[in-house]
Every structure is written in C-alpha cells, then in structure tokens.
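Board notes (copied after class):
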Amino acid sequence: MASCDSLLVYNRNGGGALAFPMTGGHVIGAGTLYHLSAHWADITATDDSVLFLNAPVGAWGRLVGGQFTQTGHSNSFSASYPVGTSDSVLFYSTSGTSGIATLKGGTYHYVGSQSGFAVWQVISGAK
C-alpha cells in the first residue's frame, strides 16, 4: 500500500509494518518499523493518509515521508472493501449501496452513501 510519497509494508499475521519514503521510483533508506494491530482485512491510502479496516473496527492516520502517525479510530464501520483516491475513500458493497468518506491530512470524515456500484466486481482508485 502506498501514499503519495511513502510505501507501507504490513504483516497481517503479526501486525509489524515498515514505512519507507519513496521518490522517483526508488525506496529511500531502511524504513521505520511500526507495531500495528494484527489482522487488518483491508488497507487503502490517499495522497497523505492510510486507512486500516476490519469492519466494524477501523483506524487511520497520516503517512508522509515514510512516517506513519495514527490520528483516529472507530468501532462503527459497517462496510468493507475500501478504495482510495487522492483525498477520498469509497467503501464498496455488493448490495449496491456504498459509503463515501474523505481522508486527508490524517482527518477522516464520512460523507454519505452512494448507490449504483453493485454490478462492478473490481474497483480501483487513482491518485
């Protein structure tokens, strides 16, 4: 998973993670080691932030320059399959109604729901 200038490598079983700064297609330095919660089912990034999700639990934070800082968490997520763009997250659901949120500067804000995505099987965001 990557934000605009960072790469985060995560071990789902143990919760260990390494964050690296990246530029010009090159990883810079040895990275910074983090000990995160294990078993996050879904992870997505925006330009400068990252969201970890295992509904109903989620956590988010800033990921800039190869440094991660958690800025929030919630136990009220009702959807999975997050897809990030430069500043937003779509929570895809096969029911046809999906959630939309913003995630910028480590600040998460749920915007509302959007219908019409049920026919799609794979959704990917772009930055």
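Comment from the instructor: DSSP finds no helices and twelve strands in the chain. The chain has a mean pLDDT of 88.
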